[in-house]
Design a protein that fits this description.
367 residues, alpha/beta, FAD/NAD(P)-binding domain, five-stranded parallel sheet, 10 helices
Length: 367
């Protein structure tokens, strides 16, 4: 298990010359060059003036207006989400270990994940490994055969972004004991069950929603052009139209690839390169240089971990799966950690994970 402290880096550590505010952005006034923020501690508001503005608010979980799903589902966007899911799963196992009613036991041991993309597939694979390994090692009263892990996907395929490798991922997850329900949407949820659009009702104690993202309300309210997805439209220099001193990148920006006419995908590898382009263009503007660098990037590929020492990777047209893909996945994410200290700590955690069983310590309160 990775320690949460080992994979998270405080933003302040990078702000050696910048002034950092831990606050929530409430409003952006593009016409008057002002940003309104609210301090976390006491909700005190203040306005910040800017000469240049970079918007990187990302996205938030999209529940498509379903209030019940929003109420009963766990999300998987933040470190806090991951800790809450882990704590909840351990709580389900603890309760199942002492439960005698077969119907209640079945519900406690059923875990449903919604979303056939990278987040949903990686989450269901990790939950499957964690639940089954923990039950075998620590919970003698739980019959592993009664554990039910379900992935619900609205599409015909899972991981459609990686083509034929999605078929390998489907077969691997199925062979590991995961039930995959395709071409189906989850339409309702309660505390003890979920309902699918085919009429199926699944009793369960755990629902994880990875069904999509939408833009932050601050982005929706901006007085500028928006794409059909709701994010702001920027030019090839990553500037907002009619606001040359405002840049946007990541999930909240719609950036057209002039080679294809389609928007760049909102992935981390694109966002990192977009940030570099924005920083170079701001420096050029501050220096009154006329040169602005357009954003052009060719994706290097995609990778996903789909189970214990198993993965899929599409790298520069090369299809890789199994242990090799899993190993590449680990090496890549280790290399992208921001500091040498974090790289070292995560490497040690991963090495120890090869020899020791899962840690079932509950870290904080259970949702």
């Amino acid at each position: 298990m990775l320690s949460s402290r080992h994979i998270a880096t405080p933003i302040r550590a990078f702000c050696k010359r910048a002034r950092y505010y831990q606050a929530k952005v409430e409003q952006i006034d593009l016409n008057n060059n002002k940003v309104t923020i609210t301090r976390t501690l006491d909700n005190q508001k203040r306005e910040l003036d800017y000469d240049f503005l970079v918007i990187g608010l990302g996205g938030k979980t999209n529940f498509f207006g379903n209030k019940n799903v929003e109420k009963y589902a766990f999300t998987i966007k933040t470190l806090g989400d991951a800790i809450a899911i882990r704590n909840h799963i351990i709580s389900m196992l603890e309760s199942a270990d002492q439960e005698e009613d077969p119907d209640v036991l079945s519900r406690l041991l059923t875990f449903v994940v919604v979303g056939g993309g990278f987040s949903g597939v990686e989450t269901v694979g990790e939950i499957n490994d964690f639940v089954r390994e923990s039950a075998e090692k620590f919970y003698r009263n739980i019959d592993v055969e009664k554990i039910r892990i379900v992935l619900v996907s609205a599409g015909e395929k899972i991981l459609p972004e990686i083509g034929d490798l999605g078929k390998y991922a489907f077969e691997s997850l199925t062979n590991s004991g995961i039930e995959i329900i395709k071409n189906t949407k989850l339409v309702d949820a309660e505390a003890e069950h979920v309902v699918l659009d085919n009429g199926m009702k699944i009793p369960c104690g755990t629902l994880v929603w990875a069904g999509g993202v939408t833009v932050d309300p601050v982005i929706s309210k901006l007085d500028t052009e928006h794409s059909p997805r709701g994010n702001v439209v920027v030019d090839k220099f990553l500037k907002l139209k009619n606001h040359p001193n405002v840049f946007a990148l990541g999930d909240c920006a719609s950036i057209t690839d002039e080679r294809t006419g389609k928007p760049y995908p909102p992935t981390a590898q694109h966002a990192v390169r977009e940030a570099k382009t924005v920083s170079e263009n701001i420096i050029s503007s501050v220096r009154d240089e006329n040169s602005q660098k357009p954003f052009v990037y060719q994706s290097k590929g995609s990778m996903a971990k789909i189970g214990k020492r198993n993965g899929v990777a599409l790298l520069m047209g090369n299809k890789i799966h199994g242990f090799a893909a899993w190993f590449l996945w680990r090496q890549y994410y280790l290399s992208t950690l921001p500091t040498t200290e974090k790289k070292f700590r995560v490497a040690i955690d991963w090495f120890a994970d090869l020899f020791f069983p899962r840690d079932i310590t509950i870290l904080s309160g259970v949702k």
